[in-house]
Fold this sequence. Notes:
By secondary structure, the chain is α+β, with helices and mostly antiparallel strands. Helix content is 41%, strand content 21%.
Amino acid sequence: MKIPKSFKVFASTINVGFDNVRLSNEGVLGDCSFTDGQINVCNEYKGEKISDCCTVDTFYHEKVHIILDAMGEHELSKNEKFVEVFSRLLRQSDDTAQYEPPEFKHKSKFHK
């Protein structure tokens, strides 16, 4: 899976970048700020390469923090156990998603 360079949450653009040196110095693999519209992740930690899988896991973890903060759920965003489990489930749902060919139109009883 690729990590996007940006995405939208409500009307806010969230930029995604790599900041190996600062994050390594702080002892974390990622951080984020909804207010600043930024997610930072590592693909190297203290000079050692981090697996792509771990980097993507970190991105999803920070993305969940961003979404919860955007919703005003600051206390829930501080619950690292919740954020970690939710981020793993969100990634799994994205990784295993199956799509119809582009010409397929979804039919719904709500859209005639």
